[in-house]
Design a protein that fits this description.
The chain is an alpha/beta fold. Helices cover 31% and strands 25% of the residues.
Length: 363
């Protein structure tokens, strides 16, 4: 049987879009997939020339004629060949771009962070449900085979016994001269919304999804932030302590644009029998280390044949093929919860984005 082929429209042409389209056109057989495939059919940018330049640079010559360049997002939303829109614009525009695509009748995969606040996330969830369309936040790491093994080792096999503590650090130094959008509140910049998604990811996998927690929020959230000297409207470093009373776990998370995470340990989960370590890189990990108190060690390696964005795309293809409107592995309710957590972190530190960035329609 021929694979189900999902046709993609890509909105915005930055670095993440470059990585995503390369994974879309990669041979699915390289990752052991035969039931779904992907085809980019449209790219939209601020000008048709820029969209065409993106296609010329990223799409093999034999496929370029099948991809239509657009000089506006609205034109792409109207293209009947597009099954699903991948929103790759800066964080501040995720809400509007996803909302416009949904209202044009398109399924949507929106790059993380889903929105800049929980109200926007809830509105997108509402519109998708009312429109009977598929919608998902693109937290790509959630779909890695490594992550499935990580949660199995923790929650099913219980290889380190009862978990008591989690350290999660996702920090990358961004030069404000070469990466100005990260220091701009008008684009939703700052460490929390960009890097904090990964900081929180491992906390949620360990605690939110702990069998004893039953998808409950943390009982305590305490957060501190350093504002950037470049622009006081964004955080340059965020640290968070969360306490989860049901499984009795304390988590310490950090995200910073001021310094890089040490490569030997991005995540450390400690239990009564030992610890699980995820070395660099926290968004695209390829290794799990298990170190038990009795001296035993185990290493699990997960080489990635590409960037790794194709696993979330495969999940989207299967859901749309099967008529599903949400992905069971990462439902919209969890995206909303993640935004609520970041809202609380910002509230405690009185960090507010410009009104036009925080804006959400009433619903």
């Amino acid at each position: 049987m021929a694979p189900f082929t999902l046709k993609w429209g890509i909105v915005a042409t930055g670095g993440i879009a470059e990585q995503f389209i390369k994974d879309l056109i990669a041979d699915p057989a390289l990752r052991g997939v035969s039931d779904v495939a992907h085809l980019p059919v449209a790219v939209a940018s601020r000008s048709v020339e820029k969209a065409q330049a993106f296609i010329d640079a990223q799409v093999p010559a034999d496929l370029r004629s099948k991809v239509t360049p657009y000089g506006s997002y609205e034109e792409l939303y109207k293209d009947p060949a597009v099954d699903v829109v991948y929103v790759a614009s800066p964080s501040a525009f995720h809400y509007k771009n996803s909302l416009d695509a949904l209202r044009a009748g398109k399924n949507v995969l929106c790059e993380k962070p889903f929105t800049v606040n929980a109200k926007q996330a809830k509105h997108l969830q509402h519109v998708a449900k009312e429109s009977n369309l598929f919608l998902m936040e693109a937290v790509w790491t959630r779909f890695f085979p490594l992550v499935k093994t990580f949660t199995k080792l923790l929650h099913e096999d219980k290889v380190i016994g009862r978990v008591h503590r989690v350290f999660s650090d996702f920090s990358v130094w961004f030069d404000p001269k070469t990466r100005p959008t990260y220091y701009d509140p008008n684009t939703g910049g700052g460490a929390l919304l960009d890097l904090g998604v990964y900081m929180n990811l491992w906390t949620l996998l360990t605690c939110y999804h702990h069998p004893d927690n039953k998808l409950s929020p943390p009982d305590v959230i305490k957060a501190v932030q350093f504002r950037s000297a470049v622009n006081r409207g964004v955080d340059e470093s965020t640290s968070v302590i969360t306490s989860w009373e049901k499984p009795q776990i304390v988590c310490i998370g950090t995200a910073s644009m001021m310094i890089d995470t040490p490569p030997e340990c991005v995540v450390r989960v400690q239990g009564t029998k030992g610890q699980i370590i995820i070395p660099i890189h926290g968004s695209r990990p390829e290794k799990i280390l298990v170190r038990l108190d009795d001296g035993a060690t185990r290493e699990y390696n997960f080489p990635i044949p590409g960037q790794g964005l194709f696993w979330e795309a495969d999940a989207v293809a299967r859901d749309i093929r099967d008529g599903k409107k949400e992905e069971a592995l990462y439902p919209l309710s969890e995206s909303v919860f993640a935004m609520e957590l970041m809202d609380e972190i910002r509230r405690q530190n009185e960090l507010v984005f410009p009104a036009n960035v925080e804006y959400c329609e009433d619903f």
